[in-house]
Amino acid sequence: MATIVGWLGLGTIGLPMAARLVRAGYEVRGYDIDARRRSAAAARGIAITEKLEGAELLFTSMPTEQALLDLVKGLKHDGALLVETSTIGPEVSKKVAQAVGPYLRAPISGSTALAEAGTLTVFASGPRAAFDRAQPALAGFSRAQIWLGEGEEARYAKLAVNLMVAVSARMMGEALALATRGGIGWEAMLDVIGESVVASPLVKYKVDPLKRRDFSPAATNALVKKDVDLIVAAAQAAGVAVPLAQHMQSIYSDMLAAGRGGEDFFSVAAGP
Protein backbone atom coordinates (compact mmCIF):
# COMPACT_ATOMS: atom_id res chain seq x y z
CA MET A 1 0.00 0.00 0.00
CA ALA A 2 1.37 3.41 -0.98
CA THR A 3 2.38 5.86 1.72
CA ILE A 4 -0.15 8.70 1.96
CA VAL A 5 1.19 12.25 1.74
CA GLY A 6 -0.85 15.40 2.28
CA TRP A 7 0.03 18.59 0.40
CA LEU A 8 -1.33 22.08 1.10
CA GLY A 9 -0.43 24.73 -1.46
CA LEU A 10 -0.31 23.62 -5.09
CA GLY A 11 1.12 26.73 -6.71
CA THR A 12 3.96 27.33 -9.13
CA ILE A 13 6.54 25.44 -7.08
CA GLY A 14 4.31 23.31 -4.85
CA LEU A 15 2.50 21.54 -7.68
CA PRO A 16 5.54 20.11 -9.48
CA MET A 17 7.00 19.00 -6.14
CA ALA A 18 3.80 17.19 -5.22
CA ALA A 19 3.56 15.71 -8.71
CA ARG A 20 7.07 14.28 -8.36
CA LEU A 21 5.90 12.42 -5.27
CA VAL A 22 3.05 10.91 -7.29
CA ARG A 23 5.64 9.72 -9.82
CA ALA A 24 7.70 8.30 -6.94
CA GLY A 25 4.80 6.10 -5.91
CA TYR A 26 3.23 8.08 -3.08
CA GLU A 27 -0.51 8.60 -2.77
CA VAL A 28 -0.74 12.38 -2.66
CA ARG A 29 -3.83 14.10 -1.32
CA GLY A 30 -3.74 17.85 -1.73
CA TYR A 31 -5.62 21.10 -1.64
CA ASP A 32 -5.28 24.70 -2.77
CA ILE A 33 -7.69 27.61 -2.39
CA ASP A 34 -7.38 28.35 -6.13
CA ALA A 35 -9.78 26.26 -8.26
CA ARG A 36 -7.49 26.39 -11.31
CA ARG A 37 -4.62 25.01 -9.28
CA ARG A 38 -6.83 22.25 -7.94
CA SER A 39 -7.75 21.28 -11.51
CA ALA A 40 -4.10 21.32 -12.60
CA ALA A 41 -3.16 19.15 -9.62
CA ALA A 42 -5.93 16.65 -10.30
CA ALA A 43 -4.67 16.30 -13.87
CA ARG A 44 -1.31 15.26 -12.46
CA GLY A 45 -2.63 12.49 -10.26
CA ILE A 46 -3.17 14.36 -6.98
CA ALA A 47 -6.38 13.54 -5.14
CA ILE A 48 -8.03 16.87 -4.32
CA THR A 49 -9.51 16.97 -0.84
CA GLU A 50 -9.53 19.15 2.26
CA LYS A 51 -9.59 16.03 4.41
CA LEU A 52 -6.06 14.71 4.79
CA GLU A 53 -6.65 12.02 7.40
CA GLY A 54 -4.30 9.10 7.13
CA ALA A 55 -1.36 11.09 5.81
CA GLU A 56 2.02 10.16 7.25
CA LEU A 57 3.61 13.41 6.05
CA LEU A 58 1.90 16.76 5.56
CA PHE A 59 3.73 19.19 3.27
CA THR A 60 2.96 22.89 3.07
CA SER A 61 4.03 25.34 0.36
CA MET A 62 2.73 28.85 1.01
CA PRO A 63 3.45 32.12 -0.87
CA THR A 64 3.81 34.38 2.19
CA GLU A 65 4.47 34.27 5.90
CA GLN A 66 0.93 35.44 6.66
CA ALA A 67 -0.59 32.74 4.48
CA LEU A 68 1.37 30.14 6.42
CA LEU A 69 0.41 31.58 9.81
CA ASP A 70 -3.25 31.63 8.77
CA LEU A 71 -2.97 28.01 7.65
CA VAL A 72 -1.42 26.64 10.83
CA LYS A 73 -3.95 28.27 13.15
CA GLY A 74 -5.89 25.27 14.33
CA LEU A 75 -4.23 22.97 11.81
CA LYS A 76 -4.91 19.36 12.72
CA HIS A 77 -2.39 16.97 11.32
CA ASP A 78 -3.45 13.88 13.29
CA GLY A 79 0.01 12.41 13.83
CA ALA A 80 1.33 13.39 10.41
CA LEU A 81 4.73 15.04 10.42
CA LEU A 82 4.49 18.63 9.19
CA VAL A 83 7.14 19.34 6.54
CA GLU A 84 7.15 23.05 5.75
CA THR A 85 8.79 24.10 2.46
CA SER A 86 7.93 27.81 2.18
CA THR A 87 10.40 30.71 2.19
CA ILE A 88 9.84 32.40 5.55
CA GLY A 89 11.94 34.09 8.20
CA PRO A 90 13.16 32.44 11.41
CA GLU A 91 10.85 34.41 13.69
CA VAL A 92 7.70 33.31 11.87
CA SER A 93 9.12 29.78 11.73
CA LYS A 94 9.27 29.81 15.53
CA LYS A 95 5.60 30.87 15.61
CA VAL A 96 4.75 27.89 13.43
CA ALA A 97 6.48 25.62 15.94
CA GLN A 98 4.47 27.21 18.75
CA ALA A 99 1.26 26.49 16.83
CA VAL A 100 1.93 22.93 15.67
CA GLY A 101 4.72 21.58 17.85
CA PRO A 102 7.91 19.97 16.51
CA TYR A 103 8.08 20.06 12.74
CA LEU A 104 10.59 19.86 9.91
CA ARG A 105 11.70 23.08 8.25
CA ALA A 106 12.44 22.12 4.65
CA PRO A 107 12.74 25.18 2.37
CA ILE A 108 13.93 24.41 -1.12
CA SER A 109 16.40 25.97 -3.52
CA GLY A 110 15.83 25.87 -7.26
CA SER A 111 13.58 26.93 -10.10
CA THR A 112 10.27 25.59 -11.35
CA ALA A 113 12.24 23.74 -14.03
CA LEU A 114 14.29 21.99 -11.35
CA ALA A 115 11.10 21.22 -9.45
CA GLU A 116 9.68 19.56 -12.56
CA ALA A 117 12.90 17.58 -12.98
CA GLY A 118 13.00 16.54 -9.33
CA THR A 119 16.43 18.13 -8.83
CA LEU A 120 15.79 20.79 -6.21
CA THR A 121 17.95 21.12 -3.10
CA VAL A 122 16.34 20.88 0.34
CA PHE A 123 17.74 22.68 3.38
CA ALA A 124 16.31 20.96 6.45
CA SER A 125 16.32 21.63 10.17
CA GLY A 126 14.29 20.50 13.13
CA PRO A 127 14.37 17.19 15.01
CA ARG A 128 16.81 14.77 13.41
CA ALA A 129 14.25 11.99 13.74
CA ALA A 130 11.81 14.12 11.73
CA PHE A 131 14.38 14.57 8.97
CA ASP A 132 15.08 10.84 8.86
CA ARG A 133 11.35 10.16 8.62
CA ALA A 134 10.79 12.64 5.79
CA GLN A 135 14.03 12.12 3.84
CA PRO A 136 12.75 9.40 1.47
CA ALA A 137 9.89 11.67 0.38
CA LEU A 138 12.16 14.70 0.13
CA ALA A 139 14.35 12.66 -2.21
CA GLY A 140 11.31 12.27 -4.46
CA PHE A 141 11.57 15.88 -5.60
CA SER A 142 15.17 16.86 -4.82
CA ARG A 143 18.71 15.80 -5.68
CA ALA A 144 20.13 16.75 -2.27
CA GLN A 145 18.70 16.91 1.23
CA ILE A 146 20.93 18.65 3.77
CA TRP A 147 20.10 18.53 7.47
CA LEU A 148 21.58 21.55 9.25
CA GLY A 149 20.47 21.32 12.87
CA GLU A 150 17.65 21.15 15.37
CA GLY A 151 16.36 24.74 15.12
CA GLU A 152 15.94 27.46 12.49
CA GLU A 153 19.15 26.78 10.59
CA ALA A 154 17.32 25.87 7.38
CA ARG A 155 15.54 29.22 7.35
CA TYR A 156 18.84 31.10 7.57
CA ALA A 157 20.36 28.89 4.86
CA LYS A 158 17.48 29.60 2.49
CA LEU A 159 17.65 33.36 3.06
CA ALA A 160 21.43 33.38 2.67
CA VAL A 161 21.27 31.55 -0.65
CA ASN A 162 18.45 33.77 -1.88
CA LEU A 163 20.53 36.83 -1.04
CA MET A 164 23.25 35.55 -3.36
CA VAL A 165 20.66 34.81 -6.05
CA ALA A 166 19.18 38.32 -5.91
CA VAL A 167 22.58 40.02 -5.94
CA SER A 168 23.70 37.84 -8.87
CA ALA A 169 20.89 39.23 -11.01
CA ARG A 170 21.97 42.83 -10.52
CA MET A 171 25.69 42.01 -10.70
CA MET A 172 25.12 40.39 -14.09
CA GLY A 173 23.26 43.49 -15.25
CA GLU A 174 26.14 45.78 -14.31
CA ALA A 175 28.64 43.47 -16.01
CA LEU A 176 26.56 43.50 -19.20
CA ALA A 177 26.24 47.28 -19.12
CA LEU A 178 30.01 47.70 -18.82
CA ALA A 179 30.80 45.17 -21.54
CA THR A 180 28.29 46.50 -24.06
CA ARG A 181 29.49 50.07 -23.49
CA GLY A 182 32.95 48.72 -24.33
CA GLY A 183 31.71 47.54 -27.70
CA ILE A 184 30.83 43.92 -27.02
CA GLY A 185 27.46 42.76 -28.33
CA TRP A 186 24.77 41.77 -25.82
CA GLU A 187 24.58 38.15 -26.98
CA ALA A 188 28.35 37.85 -27.35
CA MET A 189 28.92 38.99 -23.78
CA LEU A 190 26.30 36.57 -22.52
CA ASP A 191 28.24 33.82 -24.30
CA VAL A 192 31.40 35.02 -22.55
CA ILE A 193 29.70 34.99 -19.15
CA GLY A 194 28.18 31.56 -19.78
CA GLU A 195 31.60 30.06 -20.50
CA SER A 196 33.54 31.91 -17.81
CA VAL A 197 34.51 31.14 -14.23
CA VAL A 198 31.38 32.96 -12.99
CA ALA A 199 29.01 30.65 -14.88
CA SER A 200 27.13 29.18 -11.93
CA PRO A 201 24.13 26.93 -12.61
CA LEU A 202 21.92 29.98 -12.03
CA VAL A 203 23.83 32.12 -14.52
CA LYS A 204 23.84 29.37 -17.15
CA TYR A 205 20.09 28.92 -16.68
CA LYS A 206 19.50 32.62 -17.34
CA VAL A 207 21.79 33.16 -20.33
CA ASP A 208 19.37 32.05 -23.07
CA PRO A 209 16.32 33.95 -21.74
CA LEU A 210 18.47 37.08 -21.42
CA LYS A 211 19.65 36.69 -25.02
CA ARG A 212 16.01 36.71 -26.09
CA ARG A 213 15.10 39.35 -23.49
CA ASP A 214 12.44 36.90 -22.44
CA PHE A 215 11.31 37.75 -18.92
CA SER A 216 8.62 35.13 -18.55
CA PRO A 217 8.84 34.44 -14.83
CA ALA A 218 10.46 31.49 -13.17
CA ALA A 219 10.34 33.69 -10.07
CA THR A 220 8.82 37.15 -10.30
CA ASN A 221 10.28 40.46 -9.21
CA ALA A 222 7.46 40.67 -6.68
CA LEU A 223 8.36 37.30 -5.19
CA VAL A 224 12.06 38.10 -4.94
CA LYS A 225 11.26 41.49 -3.41
CA LYS A 226 9.33 39.61 -0.72
CA ASP A 227 12.31 37.34 -0.14
CA VAL A 228 14.74 40.26 0.08
CA ASP A 229 12.46 41.91 2.63
CA LEU A 230 12.69 38.72 4.71
CA ILE A 231 16.48 38.69 4.34
CA VAL A 232 16.84 42.28 5.52
CA ALA A 233 14.50 41.73 8.45
CA ALA A 234 16.31 38.57 9.56
CA ALA A 235 19.69 40.26 9.24
CA GLN A 236 18.58 43.26 11.27
CA ALA A 237 17.23 40.99 13.99
CA ALA A 238 20.54 39.13 14.06
CA GLY A 239 22.63 42.30 14.05
CA VAL A 240 24.21 41.55 10.67
CA ALA A 241 24.98 44.32 8.17
CA VAL A 242 23.65 43.48 4.69
CA PRO A 243 24.17 46.55 2.48
CA LEU A 244 23.91 44.50 -0.71
CA ALA A 245 20.56 43.10 0.40
CA GLN A 246 19.32 46.59 1.17
CA HIS A 247 20.49 47.77 -2.25
CA MET A 248 18.56 44.94 -3.90
CA GLN A 249 15.53 45.79 -1.76
CA SER A 250 15.57 49.27 -3.30
CA ILE A 251 16.06 47.96 -6.84
CA TYR A 252 13.20 45.49 -6.64
CA SER A 253 10.99 48.15 -5.07
CA ASP A 254 11.68 50.28 -8.14
CA MET A 255 10.76 47.39 -10.43
CA LEU A 256 7.43 46.98 -8.67
CA ALA A 257 6.78 50.73 -8.77
CA ALA A 258 7.40 50.62 -12.54
CA GLY A 259 4.70 47.97 -12.94
CA ARG A 260 7.22 45.18 -13.60
CA GLY A 261 6.45 43.01 -10.59
CA GLY A 262 5.27 40.13 -12.78
CA GLU A 263 8.47 39.86 -14.81
CA ASP A 264 11.20 37.36 -14.07
CA PHE A 265 13.53 38.65 -11.37
CA PHE A 266 16.49 38.54 -13.77
CA SER A 267 14.87 41.37 -15.74
CA VAL A 268 16.94 43.67 -13.49
CA ALA A 269 19.94 42.47 -15.51
CA ALA A 270 18.53 44.21 -18.58
CA GLY A 271 18.23 47.60 -16.91
CA PRO A 272 15.24 49.95 -16.91
Could you explain the architecture of this structure?
It is a single chain. With 272 residues, the chain is an alpha/beta fold. It has two domains: 4-151, NAD(P)-binding Rossmann-like Domain (Rossmann fold); 155-270, N-(1-d-carboxylethyl)-l-norvaline Dehydrogenase, domain 2 (Orthogonal Bundle), CATH 1.10.1040.10. Helix content is 50%, strand content 13%. The strands form two sheets. It has a six-stranded parallel sheet, with helices on one face. It has a three-stranded mixed sheet with strand order 7-8-9. It is globular and about 65 Å long. 41% of the residues are buried. The model has no long low-confidence stretch (mean pLDDT 95).
